[in-house]
Amino acid sequence: MDLKEFLAEKRPAIVKRWFDYVLETYPVQTSELLKSGKSRFTNPVGNIISESLASIFDELVAHLGAEGLEPGGADRLGEFLENVIRVRAVQDFTASGALGFIFSLKKAVMEEAKGSGSLNSQPGREEFYRQMMEFGALVDRLALGAFDFYMQCKEKIYELKAVEVRSHTYRLLQQANLLVEKKEEEEKGKSPSGGKDCNDCSGCGEDQKSKN
Questions:
Q1: pTM score, two decimals?
Q2: Residue ranges of the domains in the chain?
């Protein structure tokens, strides 16, 4: 059995292991909540993570051994991955903590292979190992692309927070009557000489001398 056949056969067990590894990155209470059900209505976050992980796995297996992802496959894979990253980008994770779940897929596959004895089976053990290395490299490339999208998400979050802080500060100043409208400032700065500041020029005095 080659790796692609193995991954297809063990898909439910591998995806479950992967999902469990992801849940381990959360506090116990949150983990139990995410595990409690996968309905999109009663547990939307758990549903997004579970379904996205399964779809990511399917796309990776489908393209194992190929020269690269065709445009459609890359788009689908990116979409499923982004669903999970969007969730974890707004949660209390460091960059490494938010994206570490991707590498745990390799651990899930390895543990399942060990448990089934596939790593010790003959013949074809060397080829199986070679394909495992290829699959691991595919996961690593996925993680690199995920980091770029994660940073985009964080930048957007920081921008939204900055806008929120400016808006909140403006409202506080407004409530404290510490804001002066621009039009009012312009009116205060005008002088009888037609807009010139009386403190900065002697226009009025010069006009008075010409009249005399």
A1: 0.70
A2: 3-154
